[in-house]
Backbone:
């Protein structure tokens, strides 16, 4: 998982001197979309989807709410770049310069120690993908999306775009038009994938856009944890990350999707993530947002059938020049459904965080329970936090709670910790670590340790 320091260096902001084997010219057009589809050898229905999505993207205006997106120059972005001529199933097969990048990020070591499978994407394409044999034998499928479209075309066609439609929003349309890479996960009925799967996305090229597409299908009674991490080098120009994640949680399944994104501060991070939860199913989003110039991301669970549950833990940390506009959505369409949303945000060095949420209860959704809790921590007078909760409750017996707090690091807290021998930075880091503890305790141990390390680096020099 990546690490950074706002006031000193961004540890994974290094640039790799990797020459791609192919790259499309900058700019977006019908020809761009047709070339991407042709290079991949896609079926006609996918090309048709792409072209329709491009039309919708061009027709939709930029959103006027949320973060300022007016500086994005869509004509100055490369929409497809191929870093190597084949995908590897062993790290020795990955081109050496690219392999060294992922070694710096610790991905091969993590795979050996505590993962069921790993996918690694570099710019537009997956360069490595592997699933351990014990899960293959049980029928689990873990592929990059391009390979899944070739090997399981009927399954992909059945579910692609059913959770996030082509016309959902401007950036979902853009992703559908130019998507490349991402992950495809299929877990058969009753199979419990007890060790996490991980995908790692590295955005290396300058003026590059990364548009991965992820589709997870959990059959009845199954369980899977999927972990995602992202980094990019630091440039003086802006890059664009625009992803779509679709999850289908069949009856009594459980899906946990954990994201720890730490883009460099010149990346626009604009992501649509949504899940459909059927009878008795549980979907959990654990969503950590560090880095980026702008983030707009609101993981959503649509509670389709009785007994389904949504749990969302959202963390946003914003430093100088950053706006983290994050939150969650829970849509209760069936009776006896439950949602629990906890949002934590930290603003420092003049950074801005926003919680933006939607809770919707349909008239037929009787007996629902929902709780939304938003906590913001400001570390200096120049930082900012906003809360934009929206609740539409059309059922008379719904139990809905909303709680929001904004606090700052107090002088008494700092004095007490300093008197115990801690430096000011150590004291602030300890306070912030306690503040985000509800998020950290839900992470696998290795990721909780890395999260605390990341917090320590982010908080370096945050007070004074």
Residues:
């Amino acid at each position: 998982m990546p690490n950074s320091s706002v006031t000193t260096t961004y540890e994974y902001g290094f640039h790799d001197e990797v020459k791609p084997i192919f790259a499309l010219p900058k700019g977006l057009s019908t020809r761009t979309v047709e070339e991407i589809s042709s290079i991949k050898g896609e079926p006609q229905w996918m090309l048709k989807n792409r072209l329709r999505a491009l039309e919708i993207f061009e027709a939709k205006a930029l959103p006027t709410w949320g973060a300022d997106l007016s500086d994005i120059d869509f004509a100055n972005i490369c929409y497809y770049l191929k870093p190597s001529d084949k995908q590897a199933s062993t790290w020795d097969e990955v081109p050496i310069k690219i392999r060294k990048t992922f070694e710096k990020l610790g991905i091969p070591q993590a795979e050996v120690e505590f993962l069921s499978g790993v996918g690694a994407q570099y710019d537009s394409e997956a360069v490595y993908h592997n699933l351990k044999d014990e899960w293959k034998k049980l029928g689990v499928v873990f592929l990059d999306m391009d390979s899944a479209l070739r090997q399981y075309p009927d399954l992909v066609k059945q579910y692609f775009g059913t959770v996030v439609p082509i016309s959902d929003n401007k950036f979902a349309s853009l992703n559908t038009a130019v998507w490349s890479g991402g992950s495809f996960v299929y877990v058969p009925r009753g199979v419990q994938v007890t060790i996490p799967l991980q995908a790692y996305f590295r955005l290396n090229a300058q003026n590059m856009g990364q548009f991965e597409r992820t589709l997870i299908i959990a059959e009845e009674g199954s369980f899977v944890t999927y972990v995602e991490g992202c980094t990019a080098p630091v440039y003086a120009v802006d890059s664009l990350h625009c992803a779509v994640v679709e999850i289908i949680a069949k009856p009594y399944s459980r899906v946990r999707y954990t994201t720890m994104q730490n883009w460099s501060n010149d990346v626009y991070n604009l992501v649509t993530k949504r899940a459909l939860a059927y009878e008795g199913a549980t979907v959990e989003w654990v969503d950590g947002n560090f880095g980026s110039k702008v983030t707009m991301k609101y993981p959503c669970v649509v509670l389709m059938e009785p007994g389904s549950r949504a749990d969302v833990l959202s963390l946003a940390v914003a430093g100088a020049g950053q706006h983290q506009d994050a939150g969650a959505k829970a849509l209760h369409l069936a009776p006896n459904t439950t949602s629990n949303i906890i949002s934590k945000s930290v603003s420092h060095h003049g950074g801005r965080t926003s919680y933006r949420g939607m809770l919707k209860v349909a008239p037929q959704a009787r007996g629902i329970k929902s709780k939304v809790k938003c906590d913001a921590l400001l570390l200096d007078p120049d930082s900012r936090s906003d809360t934009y909760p929206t609740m539409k409750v059309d059922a008379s017996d719904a139990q809905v709670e909303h709680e929001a707090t904004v606090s700052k690091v107090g002088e008494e807290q700092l004095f007490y910790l300093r008197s115990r021998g801690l430096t000011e930075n150590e004291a602030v880091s300890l306070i912030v670590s306690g503040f985000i503890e509800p998020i950290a305790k839900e992470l696998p141990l290795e990721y909780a340790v890395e999260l605390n390390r990341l917090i320590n680096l982010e908080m370096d020099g945050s007070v004074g």
